[in-house]
Each structure stands twice: as structure tokens, then as C-alpha cells.
Amino acid sequence: MKHLKVPVLAINFKAYPTSFGVKALEIAKAAEKVAQEYGVEVIVIPPATELRKIVESVSIPVYAQHADPYEYGAYTGWLPVVALKDIGVRGILVNHSEHRLRLDEIVAIVEAAKKYGLETLVCADTPIAAAAIAAIKPVALAVEPPELIGTGIAVSKAKPEVITNTVQRVREVNKEVIILTGAGISTAEDVEAAIRLGTAGVLVASAIMKAQNPEKVIKDMAAVAKAAYK
Predict the structure, then answer these.
(1) How far is C-alpha 223 from the chain's CA centre?
(2) pLDDT, tens digit, for every residue of 52-93?
């Protein structure tokens, strides 16, 4: 398994109009260009329908937005981890607040991903939840208070104590996991604040996917992340 570099800029495409087709591929290629220019780990997380095309088109890590801990078989409507492995996906976003899971389901997905050499980025809504998730040893976790997601109000500004408490609790359990900040990340300044508070980067969505110039936003965030992370 490859290992993520830091700092990290993880771009969750969600299911916006720009998350599909030509526009999705343009944003993924812009992310690749910025990653190469700034030496920052940029992860793209497109919808399942776009995964194969984007995996075949860019060299940066491509994660799925969800997966199910199944082998191939009679699993109508599910997305087996092994299938993602076979098309070249590098990792899985797990337990986003828009796709919440029970802890036992998170454990099952993380373990299935490990079996097939895939990385996992698991979301948590509180410092306590983050510590519990850290114990199952994903590659990365993102703390995201759900009430701030999509608001444009960054957790790094509105609730900085959530980030610092998360870092403290997680490090008591797991010193290796990469910790990211999510929820409301809108500007390069939000990225800088997240890193200054002790995390290794951000999980961002609408600020890029709904931007008039997504490449400029990615570039601005990557530049600040590179400068701020020491």
C-alpha cells in the first residue's frame, strides 16, 4: 500500500452537477496539476459512476465516496470493496455525515479495505467519536461537526476547540493516523487555520465543486497548506 504524504487536500465531489462527466474530469485533472506543482497530496473523491474514468485519467489518489464490506456475489445495490480495488481506486471515504454508519459498519469497511490494500479516510463528528475511530486504525480521519457542513462557516474558525480536542484525544489512541479538518472549509485562510490548530490538511467540497474557477481555489488552498505545514 502507498502512504499518503502530508499536507493533504481531500476534495469530496459529492453529487453536484460538476461532479459528473466532463466537468468532474476537468476538476480531477486540475487537482492533479496543482498536486504536482506544489507537492501537496491532493485526493479526489468522485461519485461511483465517475471512478473508473478518473482513475484512468489522473495519477493522484482517487477515493470512492463509500463502499460495502463484501466480496463479489449476490449483493444487488451494494458496492463491494474488492470491486473498487480492481478498478484501481486507492481509498474510501467512510462515514461522511451525509452517509452515516454505525461503528460496527465502519469497522467492517476499514478491515475490508485493509484486506485489499486500500486506504480509508473516516469522518467523525466529535472528538470522542474521532478517538474511537482512531482505535480501528484508518489511514486518515476527518473531524466534521455536521451542523457546519455546507454552511461556509469553517469549523477551524467557529469551533476551533473541536479540532484541538480531537487532536489531543486521537493522539492518545493513535499517533500515526493523519487528522484532517472538515466542515465549512471555504477559503485558503480556513486551510491555514486548520493546519495551525494541529491537523494535516482539510476535507473540502462545495468551495471547490461550486466555484467559478475550481483550479484557482485548489491552487490557493494547496499553496497555503504547503506553506503552513511544517
Answers:
(1) 18
(2) 999 999 999 999 999 999 999 999 999 999 999 999 999 999
Give the active site residue among 41, 50, 96, 192. 96
Q: How far apart are CA 133 and CA 64, in angstroms?
A: 19
Pick the CATH number of 8-90+120-228 from 3.20.20.70, 3.40.50.300, 3.40.50.1220, 3.20.20.80: 3.20.20.70
For this structure, is 99 an active site residue?
no
Q: In the annotation, is 144 catalytic?
A: yes
pTM of the predicted structure, to 2 decimals: 0.95
All structural domains of the chain with their residue ranges:
8-90+120-228
- Positions at the binding site for substrate: 12-14, 149, 184, 205-206
List all residues 6 or more positions away from 77 whose beta carbon is below 8 Å from its beta carbon: none
Q: What's the rounded mean pLDDT across residues 140-160? A: 71
| Alpha carbon of residue 114 to chain centroid | 17
Of 32, 41, 119, 144, catalytic: 144
